[in-house]
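To the wet lab folks,

You asked to see what we're planning to order before we commit. Fair enough. Below is the target structure as tokens, and below that is the sequence we designed to fit it. If anything looks off to you, flag it before the synthesis order goes out.
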């Protein structure tokens, strides 16, 4: 008897909450908070644009409608990564 090969993990990354202070992102391993102070690109966006997030590779997240590309490390330690673009 042989075992079947397991498929890839299909757990999607998901924005679980949007508040006046920032957004919560649920990944396969943890929940991350993105404050608007550290990630100003999200502050005045439409809810649909914030909710549409893709995990392009492990711990690498992309919001195509906002054109924001972040890693889990950037989210956990924004002080290590100065803002690269001005927000609108």
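Sequence we intend to order:
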């Amino acid at each position: 008897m042989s075992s079947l090969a397991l498929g890839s993990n299909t757990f999607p990354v998901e924005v679980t909450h949007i508040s006046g202070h920032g957004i919560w992102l649920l990944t396969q391993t943890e929940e991350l908070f993105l404050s608007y102070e550290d990630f100003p690109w999200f502050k005045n966006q439409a809810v649909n644009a914030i909710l549409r997030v893709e995990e392009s590779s492990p711990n690498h997240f992309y919001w195509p409608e906002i054109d924001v590309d972040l890693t889990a490390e950037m989210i956990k330690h924004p002080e290590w990564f100065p803002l690269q673009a001005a927000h609108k």
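Structural context that might help your review: DSSP finds two helices and six strands in the chain. The radius of gyration is 15 Å.

Thanks,
Computational group
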